[in-house]
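Example A, followed by Example B.
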Amino acid sequence: MRTVEDIEIRFPGSLAEALAWQADEKTRGRPLAGGTDLMVQWESGVAAIPERAVSLWGLKELKGIRETPRGIEIGAMTTHTELRSSPLVREKLPALAAAAATVGGRQIQNRGTIAGNVANASPAGDLAPTLLITDGLATAASASGRRDIPLAKLFTGYRKLDVRADELLVSFTLPALPAGAREKFHKIGTRAAQAISKVMGACRVRVQNGTIVSLAVSLGSVAPVPVRLPELEQWIAGRRVDLNLLEEVERRASAEVHPIDDIRSTATYRKWVSGRLVRALLEA
């Protein structure tokens, strides 16, 4: 029986070398970022132990946070600690910074990466809702080139992404918070810290003179993939914020999600708390 110790871990000297390995089935390995999810999954038997893994940790090409004409570009190997402490992320993508600060403890935040959190493709991944509300892009690279994937289409099923076996996630480009808009992130778990989410969510909303101009809201742990709430987003545009609106928002958000029962929570609780959470996100 294969164990973690049997994995051949390869360390590419460059992104080009890693992509060349991934292009050939004989040298291809399981992409390994910080390892905070995969090592646990391999040790516990939740995920099959691969013959080889390709460590991306040392690739400087995949690190860094910079502002570009398209938005804030974040390298795949950027850690949660770097996200939560970046002045640029805190100003331009505040929900992402807030979510990164809730992922595990400081040791996990120092090692875990944005691409690892996304590639794990768990519906309980805390960063996903904060990425979806930006309408941004993920960039995947292969030996034959790069392609941009709208984040709205990246998650294709439970623990599945629109990323081919010969591709690696290399960066994320996220439109910055527009002038006059605000973002919030909120997470509900069994404990106040270091908990896997029962439900979590993020919103990006712009209000002008008491009227909602636009809303993007996303929830996690309520479906096989992190989801937006398009019916609510369309309905709410142009409506004035008052108590009646917030009560209706709560009702509509609960009705739009269809969660399941699992070890962490029940579908009934998740539906109820989804409405409460979205209402809290919209309250000033």
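Example B, a separate protein, is given below in the same form.
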Amino acid sequence: MKKLIISLLTTLFLFSPAFAGNIDVLATMQSKSNIQDRVWVGTFQIVWNDFMDKIAHNVIKFPDGTPQIVNELNRQDFTVEDLSENCYYKYSGKVKKNTKKTIAKAIKRKFDETSELLEQLNLTPDKNKFIVYAMLKKDFEFLKPFDKLGKSNFRDQEAEFFGIDKNSSRELAQGVRVLFYNSPSDFAVALDTSDKDEVYLYKTENTKTFNYIYADMLKKEAQYSGDKTLNKDDELKVPNLKFYEEKSFDEVTGKRIKGTNLVIDQAMETIEFEMNNKGVELKSEAAMIATMSALLPPEEVRNFYFDDTFVLFLKEKTKSKPYFALRVYDISNFQ
């Protein structure tokens, strides 16, 4: 059988501490980016959902124009219904004297974790200040630890890899499912875990949005009629991944919610991720702080003054076209 080498070398760009700051943190799966290395996790969307539903009580719009990122978040395409209850914690309410301590105790009790994000938030107690916070935590192992394959090149950089080679026990192949293999530059696999999670790896140079790429992968899987098992001559090679990123969503910071006197003071997310031969560890936090200003800014006054050139139409209610049209330029001809 022709040897099939499944090598994740052109699509999964190397995530390492040295690359911190070069990874674009996206708000949604639909978000576009010109940055090659990009990441999305649902934590900020969880926060946005509760901000909409429990604080603003409406779809979020801004008086001076609503950016695309807000329209995408307003769709709530990802919710806590897409997660198991044991892997997330969320909190919303007014910022009180004990708010920080309450959240810290809760995530310690549930995940045995501390928070990097809480220290960056303005949690000075204020009856007019609100917080929405969430932590998403996932730790899981592969069915069996894959072999460490040592260092080799990822594009033009040296990196550590794990997987299955000719010297590996073929038992490791039981944790790998081939989704499709169309060419050495177009294939995908799924790695099974000892928990309910799966890891999908898709080798592609497609730079479209995450939701498009995911749908494209599933479409190719459905169309593939070849062997979906990892055979004795097949190999798997995946780079170790490790990074930490934090993002302030400046597009929404400092904005007033239309129709309210709520102003978004802070909107942040952190992502800590590691994948090696044993499994995956993911920790993500997100939060929004909003303040209710004392006075509601006046709504825009609109003066519908037809005091310059205008056009008038007359139409019957049940008809689709007007039967009369008039353009007024020189008022002396009409008065």
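On Example B: The longest helix spans residues 43-56.
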